[in-house]
Specification:
This protein has 10 helices and 20 strands. With 423 residues, the chain is of the alpha/beta class. The chain is globular and about 70 Å long. Bound molecules: cobalt (II) ion. Cobalt (II) ion binds next to helix 5.
Length: 423
Amino acid sequence: MSSSAQSLLSFIDNSPTAFHVVDGLATELMAQGFEKLEEKDTWQIKEGGNYFVCRADASIVAFRAPSQWSVNSSFKIIGAHTDSPSLKIKNKPTSTKEGYQMLNIEVYGGALLTSWFDKDLLIGGRVLYQDEEGAVKQILVQLPYRLRIPRLAIHLDRTVNKEGFLVNPQEHLCPILGLDEDIDFEAWITKETGIQGQLLSWDLFLFDAEKASFGGVNNEFIYASRLDNLGSVHAATQALLSSTYHAHDFLVAAFFQHEEVGSTSQNGADSNFMETVLKRIVLAFTEQQEPFFQAVASSLFISTDMTHAVHPNYGSAHDPNHKPMLNKGPVIKSNANMRYATDAFSIAKFKQWCYKAGVSYQDFCNRNDMGCGSTIGPMVAANLGMATIDVGNAMLSMHSIREMAGTHDHQMMIDVFEAFFDS
Ligand code: CO
């Protein structure tokens, strides 16, 4: 199997939350010679230079500047999201129930709730505290303790297989923390994370303790958490890192948090993050306003997010003529009602990159009697006024705690992204 698929598995294992995703990417980019820009500083951008900027520690835009900037320089952008559905620990984190110490959680995004039962769960995210000088500091954490949301035994729920497993997220979904009813969560977190100071707040999530792996008789599958959408984040990052620079255009990879909850936030795809970064990039080369608008008019945005492969046991969930398969290449996502930003122009461009890369593509369109999901493509297209295509690799078990994708699709998508950056 390809080294890129192997690398994806490690990336997922090292990225339990959006904060870890961005932290890991920043480390990797700096190792590859990218310079970190702060939004609060004045930006100095050199021709041929490599840079990245983060917002709210969970979104990141990385770019390579052209070797020769001109008013004709455009943006070639690949965008994806850093977050995945999860269970998030509430601010009042514990309660007792039937003699058990419970962790109070709320559901983040459209999680497939039944998949979170009977799994070994770990806690990860960021913790904020006040240090000895009174400054607010932050650290990323992963705790080693396994928690669990146990299923009710079939003997106590005889009809569940026929009538369905209904989950009330308030009543049924809180994990058991332990049997120690006196545990002080804040003192425990302070001790376990080793912070020197007063714990103030946290963004802590639960995640699957099981590591990503290959599966299938020929290792043709990837089994992992958060493939949606770390598969896309990893593919776009690999393409950016392998493309050295472009003579005329900016090569950009942009990853946003909060897609799973609608993208409206300080650093979501529906924020001004993308636009302000692109504007400031152009302003670093010219004080004129005009070149930014000229650049946007000739730029392209690939919005990449995983998509639904046809399921062998539920084939009728797909339109009969649009049944993407695993390992058959990138999927072009279209929707007449613009739940995807794809149009004939962006399809034409994408097919050119596929031909150039020697990679086959597939088409996805929802059944007419079913609602269509969406992603960051339409909002970025609308906010920037930029030609956009929605694509993604096919997968099964989307939004389950453990998802499944095709091993070979990953390198194919990277090849197409590289063709786009080289175009
Ligand atoms: Co997604």
